[in-house]
Amino acid sequence: MTLLNISLFISKLGAPEIILIIVALLILFGGKKIPELMKGLGSGIKEFKNASKEENKNDSTAIEKKEE
Questions:
Q1: N or C: which end of the chain has fewer CB within 10 A?
Q2: What is the tens place of the pLDDT at every residue in 34-52?
Q3: Range of 38's domain?
Q4: Would residue 15 count as lying in a domain?
Q5: Which segments cross the bilayer (predicted)?
Q6: Is residue 21 part of a domain?
């Protein structure tokens, strides 16, 4: 699934659908597990962004060295 497909899917969600998803998550994982899941998701996103920035930095350095 591409990022465009995901964003189109999310944009079509209304309030009832979002509430239903939240209720389903609470039933499946319980109130105590949700913060832990969100913390893990947040740290994963942070690591991904840091790795992406580092890769872009390495690419820029390689291009500069190649031009010299």
A1: C
A2: 888 889 989 998 998 888 8
A3: 31-59
A4: no
A5: 6-29
A6: no
